[in-house]
């Protein structure tokens, strides 16, 4: 198993994972656009098991999307991706990471809390889905 940078040929497989795990998935075009402008890492065996995309500006990083194949969840793949992401942030001299997560996604919120992200607030009607769901704003300061 290895963590590596996302390549263009990984996007179709990443998109398939996203379709299976996210109630409001990114489109393949969104993945292509994010890939062209930002950074992504994948966790793979013979196939992609998880992915993480982020953007950075100056000394801040924004975690844009993190996903793990449903049949490989709770096997430390998300934690491995998070560790690789945080190490990359240290190498880039990032001082703060922030993210938004769907308010109803308790599993993800608890995962981020376990990784020492703190809740900063709520962004109402952030997700443009059938419910106009709220987002929980979270951040982590890197020392």
Indicate the topology.
Layout: E1 2-5, H1 11-21, H2 28-37, E2 39-44, E3 48-57, E4 60-68, H3 77-91, E5 96-102, H4 106-114, E6 118-123, E7 135-141
Parallel strand pairs: 4-5
Antiparallel strand pairs: 1-2, 2-3, 3-4, 5-7, 6-7
Helix pairs in contact: 1-2
Written overview of the protein:
The protein has 143 residues and is an alpha+beta fold. The chain has one domain (2-141): Gcn5-related N-acetyltransferase (GNAT) (Aminopeptidase), CATH 3.40.630.30. It contains four helices and seven strands, in the order βααβββαβαββ. Strand 2 (39-44) and strand 3 form a beta hairpin. Helix 1 crosses helix 2 (28-37).
Comma- or semicolon-separated keywords:
143 residues, Aminopeptidase, alpha+beta, globular
Overall radius of gyration: 14 Å
Number of domains: 1
State the share of residues found in helices, binned by percent. Answer: 25-40%
Structural class: alpha+beta
N- to C-terminal distance: 29 Å
The CATH architecture is 3-Layer(aba) Sandwich
Please sum up the structure shown.
The protein is of the alpha+beta class. It has helices spanning 11-21, 28-37, 77-91, 106-114, and strands at 2-5, 39-44, 48-57, 60-68, 96-102, 118-123, 135-141.
């Amino acid at each position: 198993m290895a963590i590596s940078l996302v390549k263009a040929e990984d996007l179709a497989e990443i998109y398939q994972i996203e379709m299976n795990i996210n109630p409001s998935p990114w489109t393949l075009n969104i993945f292509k656009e994010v890939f062209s402008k930002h950074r992504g890492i994948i966790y793979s065996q013979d196939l992609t098991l998880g992915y993480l995309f982020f953007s950075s500006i100056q000394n801040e990083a924004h975690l844009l999307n993190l996903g793990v194949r449903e049949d490989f969840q709770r096997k430390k793949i998300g934690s491995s991706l998070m560790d690789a992401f945080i190490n990359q942030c240290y190498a880039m001299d990032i001082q703060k990471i922030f993210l938004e997560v769907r308010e109803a996604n308790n599993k993800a919120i608890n995962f981020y809390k376990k990784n020492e992200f703190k809740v900063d607030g709520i962004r109402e009607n952030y997700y443009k889905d059938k419910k106009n769901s709220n987002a929980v704003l979270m951040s982590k300061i890197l020392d």
